[in-house]
Amino acid sequence: MTFAINVRQYPAELINMVRTTIIVTSILGIALGVAILVWPKATLHVAALLFGLSLIFTGLMRIYQAAVASFLSAGWRILLGVLGVAILAVGIVALFHPAESLYLLAVFIGVGWLMQGVGELFAIGSGAKHAPTALLVLSGIISIIAGVVMIAMPGLALVTFLWVGAIMLIAVSIASLFTLPKKVDATPE
C-alpha cells in the first residue's frame, strides 16, 4: 500500500496515522504470510471452512430470493429455490468435511477458468475488439491450461496457490514498509 503524501498539505496527525496503518498492516501481512508457509494444512482447513460458510450464505440467499422474487415466473422461482437448497446442502457438507470441500472449490475454480478460456477464444471468432487478438488467444489458452491443471490436480494446485500467495503477501508487506511517509512532529511550531 503506497500513499503519496505532500507533507505540507496534511496535518501531522493524519500523516502519522497513515504511517501507523502501513506499519501495522505490513507486520500483519508478514505474520500471516509466514503463518501460511509454516502451517499450510491449517490455512487450507480455515479456507475450506470459510468456503463452506460462503456456500451456506449463498444458498440461504438463493432460497430467500426464490421466496420474495414475485416478478419471476413460478418456474424460475422453483429453480432458484432448488438451486439454493442444493448450495445450502453442499455448504453444510463442506463444514463437516472441509478437506473434501477444498477439492470442490478447486474444481469450481478450474471449471470457471475453462469457461473463461473458451469464452475468450470464441470472442475472437465473434469479432470482439476489446483486446488485441494475440492477447485473447494467449489469455484463452492460459486459462484453459490452468483450468485443466486445477481440475486434474486440485491438491497440488491449491497448495501451490497457497505458497505463492503467502510469498507474495510477505513481499508486498515488506515493500510497503519502504514506502512509509516521513514521520512528522505533531507539535505546533
From TrEMBL:
Listed transmembrane segments: 21-39, 45-64, 76-96, 102-123, 135-155, 161-180
Parts forming coiled coils: none
Membrane recorded as keyword: yes
Superkingdom of this protein's organism: Bacteria
Presence of the UniProt keyword Manganese in the record: no
Keyword annotations: Membrane, Transmembrane, Transmembrane helix
Any one annotated GO CC term: plasma membrane
InterPro entries in the record: Acid_resist_chaperone_HdeD, DUF308_memb
Listed PANTHER family: PROTEIN HDED
Protein's name according to its UniProt entry: DUF308 domain-containing protein
Species in which this protein is naturally found: Gordonia asplenii
Classification lineage: Bacteria, Bacillati, Actinomycetota, Actinomycetes, Mycobacteriales
